[in-house]
Amino acid sequence: MVSRIIPVEPFDLVVFGGTGDLARRKILPALFRRFCSGQMPDGSKVVGAARSALSSEAYRATVSTALKEFAGELALDDAQVAEFCEHVDYVAVDARGEGGWSELAALLTPGSVRAFYFSVGPGVFSDLAKGLKRHGLVEDDTRIVVEKPFGHDLESAQALNSELAQYFDEGQIYRIDHYLGKETVQNLMAVRFGNMLFEPLWNAQYIDHIQITVAETVGVAGRGDYYEKSGAMRDMVQNHLMQLLCLIAMEPPAQFEPDAVRDEKLKVIRALDNVQPHHIVRGQYTAADGAAAYREDVDNARSKTESFVALKCQVNNWRWAGTPFYLRTGKRLSARDSEITVVFKDTPHSIFGPEAGRHRNELNIQLQPNEGITLNVTIKEPGPGGMRLVDVPLDMSFAEALGPSAEGTPDAYERLIMDVIRGNQTLFMRDDEVEAAWAWTDPIIRGWEARGDVPKPYDAFSDGPDDAELMMRRDARAWRGLDK
Ligand code: BG6
């Protein structure tokens, strides 16, 4: 398979929070890998910016250590790392004061694509936006990239949106949800809208229900302060799971073009029902198998924050009325497994009689790890003994089907950063989308707070609280087992 690298214009990318964890783990390695693939034209520059005084030379040393740690095999090539570092500079900037802005301006090349990545807490977004404008660093097509959490409720998200809107047009603001950059997540759109096979069946008449699972084995140690105020609902459901739900449920956009796609996603969020308290289960992990309890991880013996959520919701429109969507995410679960399963309805009548058993088609889209798609089809069990039916998978592992090109696919941050440079907002969230997602999440969280809800305990490395299973059983359904 031929790799198609789309050339980009020379660019200057400034990473505020350039010494932070996200920069070291994701942003810099992503830029390095794109550099190795030839997507960093001559004259392009990466500028780390943060509060601490640091020489560019010292920063380059930090960058190369980060690359060795997080950029995989490509970073074993010292010459390549050194070459990348020639594009790297550092400047100490005081977001709220005067320090560093003119030095930063002096590093940027007029005429190059200019992007500022706000890899900092949302409390600083507005100061940075203002600082950039006030110091004349913003050109007409300058872009800013903002990370989640984009607010912690509707009100704070609206405030952030209107603060940023004072300095930048919506077309310049790239709100990242890294799930949208994942290859298989984009594949959801390719599968739905690139095949004739699925779309005619993609509705409540043929689909019994849809499950979306994002399970992690990691806990929250190291991020306790953030997570305690966030919990799984704000950290994962409001953004990543919601985006997956949108891509699965949306109407076909007229083009694969930013506003066409985002308009359709927005309609899905606005059509979501208000989740009833008995359609949602919160959990919190307890110590097991050598792992500490959530409460120890966050050093709060009375924490009521959830590390697990399972919920049932409904998209109230013509396509989906009557087909529930079940969402589930949690930390310290038995496997790292993100997947979407579309469970089709039973055939209207079985010509094989009751002894053939119940068989249903299932389309499973495995997002990570082991990206691929499986479609279960029902066939006759080979051999004599009558018409016994069995379900077999039509299995397509991307790594097997596409070989090295699948393994060499860019990670989410590589793809998204290059989209910023190209000026393509399709895979970024628009202001109204983020606000609609908060408007749906807020009443759920407020309900918990008002009731003093305490999450159900579950053992670390289990499949979550029993109540999540019970919720499904009440509907005569079951979660698909986590792939271990
Ligand atoms: C982040 C969350 O957005 O996504 C983390 O803040 C979570 O809590 C992470 O672990 C999961 O991302 P991925 O790409 O590892 O599935």
Could you please describe the fold and organization of this structure?
The protein is an alpha/beta fold and 484 residues long. The protein has 2 domains: 11-147, 3-Layer(aba) Sandwich (Rossmann fold); 180-474, Dihydrodipicolinate Reductase, domain 2 (2-Layer Sandwich), CATH 3.30.360. Helix content is 36%, strand content 20%. It has 15 helices and 15 strands. Strands 14-13-12-11-7-10-9-8-15 form a 9-stranded mixed β-sheet, with helices on both faces. It has a 6-stranded parallel β-sheet with strand order 3-2-1-4-5-6, sandwiched between helices. The radius of gyration is 24 Å and the shape is globular. It starts with 10 loop residues before the first strand and ends in a 10-residue tail after the last helix. The relative contact order is 0.14. Bound molecules: 6-O-phosphono-beta-D-glucopyranose (BG6). 6-O-phosphono-beta-D-glucopyranose is lined by residues 216, 235. Residues 216, 235 line the site of 6-O-phosphono-beta-D-glucopyranose.
In the predicted model, the low-confidence regions spanning at least 5 consecutive residues are: none
Task: Calculate Rg over CA atoms.
Answer: 24 Å
Structural class: alpha/beta
- The side-by-side strand order for the widest beta sheet comes to 14-13-12-11-7-10-9-8-15
Bound molecules: 6-O-phosphono-beta-D-glucopyranose
Please describe the biggest sheet, giving its number of strands, its sense, and whether it closes into a barrel. Answer: 9 strands, mixed
- Beta-sheet strand percentage? 15-25%
Helix percentage range = 25-40%
Overall pLDDT level? 93
Distance between the termini: 31 Å
CATH class of the largest domain: Alpha Beta
CATH architecture of the largest domain: 2-Layer Sandwich
Total number of domains: 2
